[in-house]
Specification:
Blueprint (H helix, E strand, L loop, with lengths): L3 E2 L2 E2 L2 E5 L1 H8 L5 H4 L8 H21 L1 E5 L9 H19 L3 H32 L5 H11 L9 E2 L5 E2 L2 H16 L8 H15 L2
Antiparallel strand pairs: 1-2, 3-4, 5-6
Helix pairs in contact: 4-5
């Protein structure tokens, strides 16, 4: 367990930067290992070599090891949401590979469902945190600072194709998705039939005078 945060002890875990550990092991001129003879003959020399190597490995690993707060269980999504996210990702990949109306509709519906489930889970987690939190918690100061911030960029409301304002989150997401789909869809340019016929006649006249 680590120091207290808002009256609660923080669980800590150790992580190791194995890339730097590997770099340290690649060094040739290492004083702790220089004492190991090139030609080991006796059991005492074997024990000495094993001890020196073990101490060197332990020292290097501990040097590039640090403690970080363990992730809180409340931040982890439950299995049902994780499974729903995997299903949504699979549907998005399918819709990207085969952009049929059925696949796009299914993927969009799963996106809305995942968003709703995640939002509900976060709301429940926030309620649990508010029940447990104390006045000394740093979160109170962060919230106060955020609420005092006066600089913000207003975002104009989205309009639906029929001219009405999109207020509901699902409708807003639908408008954005439709806009992106329209912008990314292949649209053939309009053809000027008269111009095409004129060019063809001119080509024929020059080819067969």
């Amino acid at each position: 367990m680590g120091p207290l945060d808002g009256g609660r002890s923080i669980s800590l875990i150790k992580i190791t930067d194995w890339k730097k550990v590997s770099t340290a092991f690649e060094k040739i001129n290492t004083p702790p290992l220089n004492s190991i003879p090139d030609d080991i003959r006796t059991t005492e020399e074997i024990d000495h070599a094993i001890g020196a190597l073990t101490n060197h490995v332990r020292t290097v690993v501990e040097k590039w090891e640090r403690k970080v707060p363990a992730s809180s269980d409340r931040r982890k999504y439950p299995p049902d949401i994780l499974e729903l996210i995997r299903t949504k990702n699979a549907a998005l990949r399918r819709a990207s590979a085969y952009p049929t109306l059925e696949y796009r509709t299914r993927a969009r519906a799963l996106q809305h469902e995942v968003k709703a489930c995640v939002q509900e889970f976060r709301n429940e987690s926030w309620s649990d945190l508010m029940e447990e939190i104390r006045l000394s918690h740093q979160g109170f100061w962060k919230i106060t600072k955020a609420l005092k911030t006066e600089e913000y960029t207003p975002i104009p409301p989205l309009q639906r194709p029929n001219g009405s304002i999109a207020l509901d989150d699902a409708v807003v997401a639908e408008c954005i998705a439709d806009s992106i789909e329209t912008q990314c869809s292949h649209v053939s340019p309009p053809h000027d039939i008269a111009r095409i016929n004129s060019i063809e006649e001119e080509v024929l006249q020059k080819t067969f005078p």
